[in-house]
TrEMBL record:
It is found in: Cytoplasm, Cytosol. This is CARD domain-containing protein. CDD domains: CARD_ASC_NALP1. GO terms for biological process: inflammatory response; innate immune response; regulation of apoptotic process. The chain crosses the membrane at residues 6-29. Its main location: cytoplasm. The lineage of its organism: Eukaryota, Metazoa, Chordata, Craniata, Vertebrata. Pfam families: CARD. Residues 59-150 form the CARD domain. Keywords: Cytoplasm, Immunity, Inflammatory response, Innate immunity, Membrane, Transmembrane, Transmembrane helix. GO terms for cellular component: cytosol.
């Protein structure tokens, strides 16, 4: 009798501990992941001389930067992502942490999606021009095709 009571109390205590641990883990690493990310506190959009401060949503799609207009095609058709990331790191478009995070992505599509949704999403024209020059160097046929399509 005493043993079964002890096992019941022990099991309930273990279950309660696991639930509390999971809740704390989810609070720290789940729902609040973006707000505790170290870059989220220090990152600000980079503006440059060619950036007008105009929000992309206030422009017509024809006025968007080439990189923004062709986001979908770049994500799904760029295959030489690593040399492009190397170029962006060398030109100081990416920080070491951003480069490292991009390199952890398993597919080329995930690397490009990270790049276009993260570091280059709010970047100015200068940074997007650096990406475009890297794309012209490492993906010339794709860029020529996209430029022909307009």
């Amino acid at each position: 009798m005493f043993l079964s009571l002890f096992l019941c109390v022990f099991s309930c205590s273990l279950l309660l501990f696991c639930c509390l641990f999971c809740c704390i883990f989810m609070i720290i690493f789940g729902g609040f992941k973006r707000s505790i990310h170290p870059l989220a506190l220090t990152e600000t959009p980079r503006l440059n001389a060619t950036h007008t401060g105009t929000n992309r949503s206030s422009l017509s799609p024809a006025e968007w930067h080439f990189v923004d207009r062709n986001r979908h095609e770049l994500i799904y058709h760029v295959s030489n992502v690593v040399p492009i990331l190397d170029h962006l790191l060398q030109e100081k478009v990416l920080k070491d942490e951003q480069y490292d995070e991009a390199m952890t992505k398993s597919t080329t599509q995930d690397k490009m999606r990270f790049l276009l949704s993260g570091p280059l999403k709010s970047a100015g024209d200068r940074d997007k021009d650096v990406l475009l020059s890297a794309l012209k160097k490492y993906e010339p046929h794709l860029i020529e095709e996209l430029e022909r399509k307009g």
